[in-house]
Design brief:
By secondary structure, the protein is an alpha/beta fold. It is 56% helix and 12% strand. α3 runs parallel beside α5, α4 runs antiparallel to α5 and α4 packs across α7.
Length: 210
């Protein structure tokens, strides 16, 4: 990192961990640009939640392409960008989970993962990855609070499987710098001191990068 500028910070975490909210708050604090996850214009998301088996491959390809384009834009640009969710999470958590649950065929999963490996070899990992760790109770209450209709059908078993995959991915993550934040007892939306605590943790990591 010596002599380089900070370009890419990414926030990882399960559904309901608070990624999007914290992404916005950190961007505002540090003056960074934001690349949000494409959930509003994603043409597959609602269909996927109604029929996961039919739409799983389409959804994962859409996310893969969307995030790959984000990373290319970050690396070609001259601004610091914070990204809501990473290209790794789809490949190591969501797609294999769908395959394991019988919601994606072996053929589709292998095709998808092969494409991911080709694409990820062309881009650099984030300068800093922030992982938001949360237990199932925290995730569920956050999901219920925001009330997205298509998330109403998410089962506890699905969230639990994802959490287990997140933990095993983070345990082995060696692509770059990693900061783990346990969000179970933090309310960074309503408590300024909780957000301040996170900002201090991030600043300490960034200071160590240069």
């Amino acid at each position: 990192m010596e002599g380089k500028t900070l370009k890419h910070v990414a926030i990882a975490g399960n559904i309901g961990a608070g990624k999007t909210t914290l992404t916005g708050l950190l961007a505002k604090h540090f003056g960074w640009d934001v690349h949000y996850e494409d959930t509003t214009t994603n043409p597959y998301l609602e269909d996927f939640y109604h029929d996961m088996q039919r739409w799983s491959f389409n959804l994962q390809i859409y996310f893969l392409n969307s995030r790959y384009r984000q990373i290319l834009a970050i690396q070609q640009g001259d601004k610091t960008v914070i990204q809501d969710r990473t290209i790794y999470e789809d490949a190591y958590i969501f797609a294999p989970n769908l395959y394991e649950m019988g919601l994606m065929t072996k053929r589709d999963f292998e095709n998808y993962f092969d494409l991911f490996q080709t694409m990820s070899a062309q881009v650099r990992p984030p300068d800093l990855l922030i992982y938001l760790r949360a237990d199932i109770g925290t995730l569920v209450s956050n999901i219920q609070r925001r009330g997205r209709e298509y998330e109403g059908s998410i089962s506890l078993d699905y969230l639990k499987r994802l959490n287990e995959r997140y933990e095993s991915w983070i345990e082995k993550y060696d692509e770059g710098n990693l900061l783990i934040i346990n969000t179970n007892n933090l309310d960074f939306v309503n408590k300024a001191e909780d957000l301040g605590h996170i900002v201090e943790l991030v600043e300490a990591e960034l200071h160590g990068l240069f």
